[in-house]
Design goal:
With 344 residues, this protein is mostly beta strands. It contains no helices and 22 strands. The strands form five sheets. It has a seven-stranded antiparallel β-sheet with strand order 1-2-3-4-5-6-7, with no helix packed on it. A four-stranded antiparallel β-sheet has the order 8-9-10-11, with no helix packed on it. It has a four-stranded antiparallel β-sheet with strand order 12-13-14-15, with no helix packed on it. The relative contact order is 0.07.
Length: 344
């Protein structure tokens, strides 16, 4: 748990993009060779944000074989990248939002980009390397994964005129970047309740797990939904394909989901007194959606770092089965990274 001083400078790397005044790293993926791909946005003064990528060697130095000195930034790829995945052939898939329209009610659509391993856009994918998909109103892809057959699945938020109008969407495109009409309706699935656009995972049988929230504010609960491989709701999971779980008495929100090697499902998020003392939360489910009561306390684990707001935004399972949660942790006025590791 201590900082790895062999990485960057005392365990940390800070990278700025040329001609950009605001850079944000929002997603990370590790290549099989140990190189680290980070995706996010770079925003020039007075301009729109654009997809930005950086690749680092395992020691934290920028990889000069990638883009320009390890960085990829093209102002023409307008949007914000929230997710990144590595294909088996080394190509890099990035998803987020783009196609902004500040005049009408549709302020953004799902945007997926694919890059070659050297950082150049793959023009054989979609339209010159980009796929833009409107699901319903203002859309933002927050997750992406690549199936074994090369098809790409993205999920995220569909946001109307207020936070109470939030729903979720899932799309699947073929390896060439065309909507897969065998999935959902014309390659798209819209989910109006619950709002499960926060987390996405794929089971070994091809079924998709979506995590998020059912209800609003203090009435919010963890929501976990399962879709069949064709995008239809898997009615054998929970109640009509959905499982809702109350962890705290003050509202809960799931941010991430991952599947263990044995098929059990881990969902991580936050809950507690809104804006004051949220805590890391972790729930484990059996393959049918029932809570795994053998895990922690009745299947639920709550972690409080220091009496202030803590938000688990991601979850991963190590090769030895241990579970790592990451996100925001706050002690008094200070905010920082929060990491917790849990025995399986």
């Amino acid at each position: 748990g201590s900082l790895d001083t062999g990485f960057g400078i005392n365990g940390m790397v800070t990278t700025g993009f040329v001609n950009s005044y605001l850079d944000r790293a929002r997603a990370v993926a590790i290549q099989p060779d140990g190189k680290i791909v980070v995706a996010g946005e770079a925003r020039p003064t007075g301009g729109d944000p654009a997809f930005a990528l950086a690749r680092y060697d395992a020691n934290g130095s920028l990889d000069p074989s990638f883009g320009s000195g390890g960085l990829v930034y093209d102002p023409a790829v307008v949007g914000i990248a929230y997710a990144v995945a590595i294909q088996v052939d080394g190509r890099i898939v990035v998803a987020g939002d783009g196609n902004f329209n500040i005049i009408g009610p549709d302020y953004g659509d799902f945007q997926i980009a694919r890059y070659f391993a050297n950082g150049t856009l793959d023009a054989s994918f979609g339209a010159d390397g980009l796929v833009t998909i409107s699901v319903a109103g203002t859309d933002s892809a927050r997750n992406v994964l690549v199936q074994p057959d090369g098809a790409i699945v993205a999920s995220g938020h569909l946001l109307g005129n207020s936070s109470a109008d939030q729903s979720a969407g899932v799309v699947r495109v073929t390896a060439s970047g065309v909507l897969d009409t065998s999935f959902g309706i014309g390659g798209k699935v819209r989910i109006d309740n619950p709002a499960v656009g926060y987390g996405l995972a794929r089971q070994s049988d091809g079924k998709l797990l979506l995590a998020g929230r059912s209800g609003q504010g203090p009435l919010g609960q963890f929501a976990l939904m399962r879709l069949a491989a064709d995008g239809s709701v898997d009615a054998s999971f929970g109640t009509a394909g959905v499982v809702t779980t109350t962890v705290s008495a003050f509202g809960d929100l799931a941010h991430a989901v991952v599947v263990q090697a044995d098929g059990r499902i881990l969902v991580a998020g936050e809950g507690g007194s809104a804006g004051v003392n949220q805590n890391f939360q972790l729930v484990r489910y059996l393959t049918d959606g029932n809570i795994d009561s053998a895990f922690a306390s009745g299947g639920k684990l709550v972690i409080d770092f220091g009496g202030f707001a803590d938000i688990a935004e991601s979850v991963a399972v190590q090769p030895n089965g241990k579970i790592v949660l990451g996100g925001l942790a706050r002690e008094g006025p200070d905010s920082g990274y929060g990491l917790a590791r849990v025995n399986p």
